[in-house]
């Protein structure tokens, strides 16, 4: 087998590979966000390789090796065959994750009956029109406008501005408070991994092209959010944290950040709900434009 598939740990310099491929392959998936791949690499041991005109992401999921592929759609067969060779050499089945629905008929045509396809509602991405979140116009979003209006009425001295390096210590402190307030017992592995991801992102903020927003009341940080582009049309909102004692803080930071983003980001990916009932309810209440189904494709 040729030694032409060279993986290296996910790093900020991989962002150009990802973004160059994300638009032509139609990528809207939060799993191909450079910020997520780098921030969560310690949890998933994420590595990235460029092969011909494809980007391969390799990681561990539940102790098993898996791949995410940004395909050149003119050469899908060769890319899959190359990964099948790689997996055969490692004595393991090929497992593709984050595969969007439009890819399934292509894979089945190229490799009939070779793969099994599994879908889990918990890992759908919620994708919204940026303008809808920025304006909250219309009857459906009236409840969100009410929250924003109450926040403005209750805290007229609020300040919203773009997240800068000066805000990072306050963001980390709020995240620490948020984690312990929401932990049912001890901080679990997922929460520790998220805190590590947030710390990594802030340490590599400029390299990852981070954009964020912060919301203060009486000079006290009450909410922050951030993300990074997936491509020139889709922006990934990776983190949003607020102090729940400030009514409307979540709605206010959400609207303010959407309004601050450049108009060429037509869509905002606000990621998955992971099967958490409260999070699902909150994400659905904003009426997503797209509920992006993602499949696990496993070699039979």
Number of extended strands: 14
CATH architecture of the largest domain: 3-Layer(aba) Sandwich
Relative helix content: 25-40%
CATH class of the largest domain reads: Alpha Beta
Order of helices and strands: EHHHEEEHEHEEHHEHHEEEHEHEE
CATH-assigned homologous superfamily of the largest domain: Gcn5-related N-acetyltransferase (GNAT)
- Determine the N-to-C terminus distance: 22 Å
- Calculate Rg over CA atoms: 20 Å
- Total of helices: 11
Biggest beta sheet attributes = 7 strands, mixed
- Class per helix and strand makeup: alpha+beta
Question: Uncertain runs with pLDDT below 50, 5 residues or more?
Answer: none
Count of discrete structural domains: 2
**Mean pLDDT reading:** 93
Portion in beta strands: 25-35%
Q: Which fold name corresponds to the CATH topology of the largest domain?
A: Aminopeptidase
Sequence of strands across the biggest β-sheet: 8-9-10-11-12-7-13
The coarse overall form would be globular
In short:
The protein has 300 residues and is an alpha+beta fold.
List the helices and strands and how they pair.
Blueprint: E1 8-9, H1 15-22, H2 34-39, H3 41-44, E2 47-51, E3 54-61, E4 64-70, H4 76-89, E5 95-100, H5 104-110, E6 115-119, E7 125-129, H6 130-135, H7 142-154, E8 159-162, H8 168-182, H9 189-203, E9 211-217, E10 220-229, E11 234-242, H10 249-260, E12 267-269, H11 277-284, E13 290-292, E14 294-299
């Amino acid at each position: 087998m040729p030694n032409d598939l060279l993986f290296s740990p996910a790093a900020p310099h991989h962002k150009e590979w990802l973004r160059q491929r994300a638009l032509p392959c139609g990528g809207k998936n939060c799993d191909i966000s450079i910020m997520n791949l780098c921030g969560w690499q310690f949890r998933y041991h994420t590595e990235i390789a460029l092969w011909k005109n494809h980007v391969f992401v390799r990681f561990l999921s539940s102790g098993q090796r898996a791949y995410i592929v940004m395909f050149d759609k003119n050469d899908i067969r060769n890319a899959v065959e190359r990964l099948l060779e790689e997996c055969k050499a490692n004595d393991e089945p090929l497992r593709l994750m984050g595969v969007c629905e439009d890819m399934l008929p292509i894979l089945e045509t190229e490799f009939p009956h070779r793969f099994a396809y599994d879908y889990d509602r918990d890992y759908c991405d919620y994708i919204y029109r940026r303008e809808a979140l920025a304006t909250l116009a219309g009857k459906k979003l009236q409840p969100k406008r009410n929250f924003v209006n109450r926040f403005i009425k209750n805290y007229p001295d609020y300040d919203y501005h773009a997240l800068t390096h000066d805000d990072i210590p306050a963001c980390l402190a709020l995240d620490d408070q948020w984690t312990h307030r929401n932990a049912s017992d001890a901080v679990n592995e997922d929460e520790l991994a998220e805190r590590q991801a947030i710390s990594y992102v802030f340490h590599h903020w400029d390299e990852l092209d981070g954009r964020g927003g912060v919301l203060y009341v009486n000079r006290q940080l009450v909410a922050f959010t951030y993300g990074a582009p997936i491509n020139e049309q889709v922006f990934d909102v990776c983190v949003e944290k607020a102090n729940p004692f400030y009514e409307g803080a979540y709605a206010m930071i959400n609207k303010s950040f959407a309004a601050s983003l450049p108009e060429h980001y037509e869509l905002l990916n606000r990621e998955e709900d992971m099967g958490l009932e409260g999070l699902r309810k909150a994400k659905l209440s904003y009426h997503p434009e797209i509920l992006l189904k993602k499949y696990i494709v496993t070699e039979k």
